[in-house]
Design a protein that fits this description.
Layout (H helix, E strand, L loop, with lengths): L5 H5 L8 E2 L17 E6 L3 H16 L3 E2 L8 E6 L4 H20 L4 E6 L5 H10 L5 E3 L7 H11 L3 E3 L7 E2 L11 E5 L1 E2 L10 H5 L3 E2 L2 H13 L4 E5 L16 H10 L4 E5 L8 H9 L6 E3 L7 H7 L5 H14 L4 E8 L6 H14 L3 E6 L17 H24 L5 E9 L7 E5 L4 E5 L8 E9 L4 E5 L1
Parallel strand pairs: 1-8, 2-3, 2-4, 4-5, 5-6, 6-7, 9-12, 12-13, 14-15, 15-16, 19-21
Antiparallel strand pairs: 10-11, 17-18, 17-20, 18-19, 20-21
This protein binds S-adenosyl-L-homocysteine, iron/sulfur cluster and FE3-S4 cluster.
Iron/sulfur cluster binds next to α6.
């Protein structure tokens, strides 16, 4: 048993990050442990978690497990969880309840919890108290140790909790089973040191650790060899890439070097406005294969709230950055994240947020009601905004955001845009689907032989969240 510890999760030292190139090992006694058994991984949360699940799947397959078509059919279920807001928690505990029933009729079912919730002391305490029938709990720092964690639980038939509350290392040799053959996630950094006062991520993911550039570039080159059309560089705060490395090499250098590999489409998320440099903007403008799409979280338009959030930019400096981006990339789409109902947010504060939305006219926005997370400073701030006021603000904000999404999409009508065709449309299997360079979802009429290719599509109809088109 190795339990998470909130105090330790908070620690940041000057200790150098260690890159480990052979820490994932799978010993002989483990390669057949899953023979004849199937697994199902259910993922909650952000792209980081989706990519972790791709690693977890590959590790399970190294142990001879095969993927089950559904959770009901699996012999091993892993929930890769997210801790960002209360409703993410509730969803997971709801699912745990469902799985308990499955385990009652299927006693050999192995159940595991991993991801960001597993890193939380309060969650693991609850599991130890009320859900002892769960088999394994492991965190974000020791995914590569899954084989031995699983073995211990299978042998002892007891709950095995193995969560490390450490700053973290960079593990370079974890295998990956990618969900797509055409677009790939590539981690460029782990963790976060920004400690925005509302956010749990710095506690669940450890300190900011950048991968060394050559590992990233090699991974992208390898993906190109396999025929991948698109890579997304991943990090909680990619603009700060390299700041923790002992070399004079930042995000602008990495973007340029990855663009030079010639990968057809290059994206990156998420960009914290604070670290966005002019050099980065210059590089984004210079390379045609860096996609004209930027996710630039605002969180709030009020300087007072931004300060309380610890975001370290102001409304004005955010708007100045926004304008600069639009100057260099007039055709780009810019999206954002906004939190309403932060402790003490007044109507005036909220109107400042609406004002930024009215100025930036985002292509789309993810909007959330503030959710207090145990251990974060904002959870202790006096929160006197009634829930109905928060709901009402969210509603007003969403109306405005949707109006601008539709307006932005309207400008595409009749235009011909490049779309990477990913497969068949979920809603209408007679159509194909894909994303434009600017990250707009398009349902496309055309030849299925073009799946996996970037094609010209004429936009024939636009809605708020998607568009229709046909191949030229
Ligand atoms: N690293 C990214 C954010 C990752 S979390 C960044 O800094 O931009 C994704 C989004 O979840 C955040 O942008 C924020 O809008 C929202 N979020 C994070 N913590 C939250 C909380 N406690 N309550 C409500 N929303 C939250
Ligand atoms: Fe959370 Fe802020 Fe880090 Fe984003 S930058 S992950 S919001 S602490
Ligand atoms: Fe959620 Fe963890 Fe991502 S808290 S948003 S899965 S980093």
């Amino acid at each position: 048993m190795q339990l998470p510890n909130l105090k330790e999760a908070r620690v940041r030292t000057k200790k150098e990050v260690v890159t480990k190139t052979n820490d994932y090992i799978i010993s002989h006694d483990l390669v057949e442990i899953g023979k004849g058994k199937t697994y199902f991984v259910k993922t909650y949360g952000c792209q980081m978690n989706e990519h972790d699940s791709e690693n977890i799947k590959a590790i399970l397959e190294d142990m001879s497990f095969t993927e089950a078509p559904s959770m009901e059919e699996a012999d091993l279920i892993l929930l890769n969880t997210c801790a960002i807001r209360e409703n993410a928690h509730n969803k997971v505990f709801g699912m745990i309840g469902r799985i308990k029933h499955m385990k009652e009729t299927k006693p050999d079912l192995i159940v595991g919890i991993c991801g960001c919730m597993a890193q939380e002391e309060v969650v693991v305490d609850e599991i130890l108290e009320k859900y002892k029938w769960i088999d394994i709990v492991f965190g974000t720092h020791n995914i590569h140790k899954l084989p031995s964690i699983l073995k211990t639980s299978m042998e002892t038939k007891k709950l095995n909790v193995d969560v490390l509350s450490i700053e973290g290392d960079v593990i370079e040799n974890i295998p990956v089973k990618r969900d797509s053959k055409y677009k790939a996630w590539v981690n460029i950094m782990y963790g976060c040191d920004k400690f925005c006062t509302y956010c749990i991520v710095p506690y669940t993911r450890g300190k900011q650790r950048s991968r060394k550039p050559h590992f990233i570039i090699e991974e992208v080159k390898d993906l190109m060899k396999q025929g991948y059309q698109e890579v997304t560089l991943l990090g909680q705060n990619v603009n700060a890439y390299g700041k923790d490395l002992d070399m004079d090499y930042g995000m602008e250098n990495l973007l340029e070097d990855v663009a030079k590999t010639g990968i057809p489409r290059l994206r990156f998320v998420t960009s914290h406005p604070w670290d966005f440099t002019d050099k980065m903007i210059e590089v984004i403008g210079k390379y045609d294969n860096i996609m004209p799409y930027i996710h630039l979280p605002l969180q709030s338009g009020s300087d007072r709230i931004l300060k309380l959030m610890g975001r370290r930019y102001t409304k004005e400096s955010y708007l100045a950055l926004f304008r600069k981006l639009k100057e260099v990339l007039p055709y780009s789409s810019i999206t954002t994240d906004i939190i309403v109902g932060f402790p003490g947010e007044t109507e005036e504060d909220f109107e400042e947020t609406l004002d930024v939305v009215n100025t930036c006219k985002y292509d789309s926005a993810f909007t959330f009601i503030f959710s207090p997370r145990v251990g974060t400073p904002a959870a202790k701030m006096k929160d006197d905004v009634p829930l109905e006021v928060k709901n009402e603000r969210l509603h007003r904000l969403n109306e405005l955001v949707n109006q601008y999404s539709k307006e932005a999409n309207d400008t595409y009508l009749g235009k011909v845009v490049p779309v990477l065709i990913e497969g068949y449309s979920e809603n209408d299997p007679s159509k194909l689907m894909g994303y434009t360079d600017t990250m707009k979802l398009v349902n496309v009429e055309g030849n299925p032989a073009m799946i996996g290719k970037i094609v010209d599509v004429e936009i024939t109809d636009v809605k708020t969240w998607s568009m229709n088109g046909k191949m030229k």
